[in-house]
Amino acid sequence: GAVVSQHPSRVICKSGTSVKIECRSLDFQATTMFWYRQFPKKSLMLMATSNEGSKATYEQGVEKDKFLINHASLTLSTLTVTSAHPEDSSFYICSARDRTSSYEQYFGPGTRLTVT
Amino acid sequence: GQQLNQSPQSMFIQEGEDVSMNCTSSSIFNTWLWYKQDPGEGPVLLIALYKAGELTSNGRLTAQFGITRKDSFLNISASIPSDVGIYFCAGQGGSEKLVFGKGTKLTVNP
Fold this sequence. Notes:
heterodimer, A: mainly beta, 4-stranded antiparallel sheet, globular, B: 110 residues, 6-stranded mixed sheet
């Protein structure tokens, strides 16, 4: 149980285009999902908290107009990187909190974004 | 903001040896979680701790929630090559957000 999927696993896009990343909880309902960014050999940096049916809460320094988050259902959250630039290249990981558990977060396998 | 100090940063051990890593914080946490991350993958939850003083095992892994609620350790006994990876501690304080340590990179030599 507690499986989280992400799609795509890898994506290469050109500067100026937008990329959408999906995060799904496959066998549980997640009222809250989290989006992280991870640089090579670094820890996870929380970008935003996504709540089903409401606006996402962004961490300080994260541009909400650039990183659009939508949490339309209890099993799906999407992150759209708009007008991507090479510096947006990174490993993006989502996690989901099981609404029936305490504070355990289950992570997706990550999406490697490369902007050329 | 809350910060976690995780140590050691890296470890090189022989197969069969025991491993210990820990995290400390300047502030109190209500929950401690330990994750393992393989290259190019997302972190996988190993152990969750909810109560000060709690000692929990998962196979060869044992973790404890410090009595002061400001620290936690993870032990791995009789290490095997597949234990290789980066181990992260994470603490949850007053909100549902997790604060992550910087990771311990474990290398196991056969």
